[in-house]
């Protein structure tokens, strides 16, 4: 990730658990539905950005004496959520990004062509779509030209 900011790496901890622990240290009660606001499926969150947003929430709660609701959390963290949304992982994002990495055309991702130099990038995109989004294999297959994505999903870990 060449952008220079750190994100939560796989195995480094659940972002929601990290935020809840920080909230407890700041003595701020965050609603249990916080996962709806900071869903790990949306992206690999920038923990520092989210911690900054949490400090804003703690300040608000301390100054106003009001209880933090999911709505107020969303309002107070709008800029952090907006920045995180720019990095949301989607099927379309994988379908559009992988051709440049593998030096193939965007049209190849949905074409009927099956040479290895086209099939493997398509399988990688399908695999990433399945493991990093909550979309079904049927949805993923339809996004790649109506293909049966079970084959691509199963093949990638073998490589």
Blueprint of the fold:
Layout: H1 15-25, H2 34-37, H3 47-64, H4 70-76, H5 78-85, H6 91-102, H7 116-132, H8 137-143, H9 149-155
Helix pairs in contact: 1-3, 6-7, 7-9
Overall description:
There is one protein chain. The chain is mainly alpha-helical and 159 residues long. The chain has helices at residues 15-25, 34-37, 47-64, 70-76, 78-85, 91-102, 116-132, 137-143, 149-155. The protein has two domains: 15-85, Helicase, Ruva Protein, domain 3; 91-158, DnaA protein, C-terminal DNA-binding domain (Chromosomal Replication Initiator Protein Dnaa, Chain: A), CATH 1.10.1750. Helix 1 packs parallel to helix 3 (47-64). Mean pLDDT is 74; it is low at 1-11.
Write out key terms for the chains shown.
Chromosomal Replication Initiator Protein Dnaa, Chain: A; Helicase, Ruva Protein, domain 3; disordered N terminus; 159 residues; mainly alpha; 0% strand; 57% helix
